[in-house]
Every structure is written in structure tokens, then in C-alpha cells.
Amino acid sequence: MATYVSLINWTDQGIKTYRDTTARAEAANGLAARFGGRIASIWWTIGPYDLVAVTEFPDDESATAFSLALGAAGNIRTTTMRAFGAADVSAIIARIG
User: Which residues, 6+ apart, have CB-to-CB distance to 14 below 8 Å?
Assistant: First the structure.
């Protein structure tokens, strides 16, 4: 499974309903499963981002579909990055020769 790191900010709508944030995170777990993925971890943070999440999906298309569906609810905006572990990077380097 591919790993993704998402930096998340609440929208105006999302901050107005901050009390629901943990319930929304739980619902997001179900949504991720619908696209064949899972939320590996999620943290509420202080600083330029309100949350940070690590997710896993079988491919970029599934991760993108999840992000679009999640964002369509209007509570968050995301910046998502594909992440590579040490084994992944070693395999990438090996391809170079």
C-alpha cells in the first residue's frame, strides 16, 4: 500500500463545528475503507496546520478519490504528499543502477 501524509486545515465551516472533529475523523476512517485504504494515524496540531494524517491506499487514484470525497464535505482543505519509507527509497535508488 502507498503511504500519504496530509497537512489539513479547517475551513470556516469546519472551525465552526470543531466540537464534531473527532466524530468526523471516525467517519473519515469509514470513507477511507470505501476506497480500499485506511487512516494509519491522525493528530490534531498547533501551528500552521490544524491536523496531520497519515493514510494508506492501494494507489494514487484511490487516495485522490478519498481526498476529493472528504474535501467535498466542506470542513477541511488538504495538502497531501506521497511518502516513501526506507525500503521504498532503497528500491527506487536500486532502479537507477
Answer: 21, 50, 74, 75, 76
Q: 76-83 and 38-44 as β-strands: parallel, antiparallel, unpaired? A: unpaired
Q: How confident is the model at residue 97 (pLDDT cuts 50, 70, 90)?
A: confident
Contact between 70 and 28 under an 8 Å Cβ cutoff? The reply is yes
Which residue has cell 468526523? 24
Q: What pTM did the predictor assign?
A: 0.92
Angle between helices 60-72 and 21-34 in degrees, nearest 10: 140
Phi, psi of 36, rounded to the nearest 5 degrees:
80, 15
